[in-house]
Amino acid sequence: MIRFALVGAVNTGTYYVFYLALLNGAGLPYVVAHVIAFILSMIGSFFLNSWFTYRTRPTLRKFLLFPLTNLANFVITTGGVYVLVDLLGMNDTYAPLIAAAAAIPITFVVSRTIMTRPDGPRTEGLTHPVRG
Fold first, then answer.
1. Are 98 and 84 a contacting pair, CB within 8 Å?
2. Which of 2, 84, 85, 108 minimizes the number of CB atoms within 10 Å of its CB?
3. 53-62 pLDDT, tens per residue?
4. How far apart are CA 18 and CA 37, in angstroms?
5. d(CA 62, CA 117)
6. What does each C-alpha distance from 28 to 54, 84, 95, 96 come to in angstroms?
7. Phi and psi at residue 84, in whole multiples of 5°?
8. By three-state DSSP, how is residue 113 classified?
9. CA–CA separation, 8 vs 15, rounded Å?
C-alpha cells in the first residue's frame, strides 16, 4: 500500500503538471485538459505500478486491462471536477486534486487485482467435463 501511495503521488504530480500545462499553457477547457492529462498520466502509472508497486513484468494484456483500474478513478474524478467547478464554483486549478482523493481506495483494489493476476489461463476450480 505504501508503494501504491508513492506511485499515486508521482502520478498525481504528473497529471497535475500536464493538466496545468494544457489548461493554462495550451488554453484548453478544463474538462479537455483533465481527460488528456488523465490518459497521459495513466500510461506512466501502468509502468510505475508494474515495476515498483507490484514488481511484475508489464505485458500487453495487463496494459490493455490497466485502464479498468482507472475507470472508477476517471468517473469519480471527472464527475468530481465537474461538480466542484460548475456546481460549487471552486477554482478549476485545485478541483482535480480534491476529486482525486476520493478515488484512491477504489483504484488500489482494482489495480492490485489486475496487476497481480497471472497472465496465463486460469485452471483453478476447473473440473473435467462430464463424459456421457
1. yes
2. 2
3. 888 888 898 8
4. 5
5. 9
6. 35, 18, 16, 15
7. -65, -40
8. helix
9. 10
Which of 111, 113, 37, 48 minimizes the C-alpha distance to 78?
Answer: 37
pLDDT in tens, 15-66: 999 999 999 999 999 999 999 998 999 999 999 989 988 888 888 988 888 8
Candidates 80, 67, 62; CA nearest to 118 is 62
Report which DSSP code applies to 93: T
> How many helical (H) and strand (E) elements, i.e. helices and strands, does the chain have?
4, 0
The mean pLDDT value for 105-131 works out to 65
> Residue 88 carries which side chain, given as an amino acid letter?
L
DSSP secondary-structure letter at 120? S
- Give the chain's end-to-end CA distance (angstroms, integer): 50
Say how far apart CA 23 and CA 102 lie, in whole Å: 22
